[in-house]
Amino acid sequence: MPNIIETDDSKYEQDVLKSNMPVLVYFRSEWCPTCKRLSPIIESISDQYKDKVKFVVIDATKNVKIAELNSVLAIPALIIIKNGKEAERNTGYISEKDLKVLIDKIL
Question: Is 32 tagged catalytic?
Answer without folding.
Answer: yes
